[in-house]
Amino acid sequence: MANRTVKDAHSVKGTNPQYLVEKIIRTRIYESRYWKEECFALTAELMVDKAMELKYIGGVFGGNIKPTPFLCLVLKMLQIQPEKDIVVEFIKNEDFKYVRALGAVYMRLVGTSLDCFKYLEPLYNDYRKLRRQNKAGAYEIVHMDEFIDELLREERVCDIILPRIQKRNVLEDTNQLEQRISALDEDIEDMESSEEEEVIEPHRSPTPERKRGSHKDNDKSYRSPSPRSRRNRSRSPHRRDRKSPVRRRSRSRSRERRHRSPVQRHREDDRKKRNKKTKRDHKERSRDDDRHRDRGRDRDRDRDDKRDRDTDHHRDRGHRSGGGGRESTKEMEIREANEVRARLGLAPLRP
């Protein structure tokens, strides 16, 4: 008894309103805890309080097909079939976005094609975020205008197969709907007009020098070629063909440079400066590395020369003393001690 549709309910699309939800999903909703505890004996007035408590939208989730509270309330609205004025107030509610989403889904299920376009298209200007639970049980973010677009274009939303509605152009041809004007049309037109002005501005007024050059070119084109030039042309017919690719290439590059936007030119100049700076830094770094390498090489060479001089000096002193290594070492110690005593102002030691 608790799952039956009310007695005075009207059939929707030629069938019971609850049959718009598939039987498997409908059975899962009847068996869910939220339906038994929260949706029992709900009326149209109490439905508003339950809709205000919603925190996300969605259909079914999990491996055992659990319904979301949003889907349970949709089925409850199909069961009790509230009046159209209440549903319109749901859609016009701006304080609670999930109440608006609930009213939009119900209107899409039971409303006519004209009512769907009339009441849902104004919601394209609502860009608030909605939290939606997918089939895996995870949450994702969608916007209200995206959700409304899915209701008007997709075949299945929140795991409910939506009834078919007429195309908008058919309703426009029969004068049942006026042509839709988007709020972004004016901004798009302003952007296009500004882009056209930027493209036309460089070619609008040529400079006096360019004008003079154009008159000269016109005079040259009207003059007849001289006999010498005719002779040259007849002698070398491929001369101009050899030079033409270079000229064409340079002209095409200049045209590309001229037709680039200021932002592209600025980026290209920055890229060139960056490349020059990196090349300069690389050269300076390589120069510093060479300098450090040369210094280390000179330092090693000086150290080796000093070691060779010291060994030669000790060898010469040992040969000169002729008394062997022990005496030469003693003389060296005495000499070093005498040098230290001389710095301190003391008398030298005698050998």
TrEMBL record:
Keyword Transmembrane (UniProt): no
Domain of life: Eukaryota
Composition bias, Basic residues: 228-264
Cellular compartments annotated: Nucleus
Composition bias, Basic and acidic residues: 200-222, 281-315, 327-342
Region feature Disordered, mapped onto this chain: 187-351
Gene Ontology biological process terms, A to Z: mRNA splicing, via spliceosome
Endpoints of the signal sequence: none
Keywords, sorted A to Z: mRNA processing, mRNA splicing, Nucleus, Spliceosome
GO cellular component: spliceosomal complex
Coiled-coil residue spans: none
Biased composition (Acidic residues): 187-199
Main location per the UniProt record: nucleus
InterPro entries attached to this UniProt entry: PRP38 (IPR005037)
Nucleus found in the keyword field: yes
Similarity comment: Belongs to the PRP38 family.
Job of this protein: Required for pre-mRNA splicing.
Name of the protein this chain belongs to: Pre-mRNA-splicing factor 38
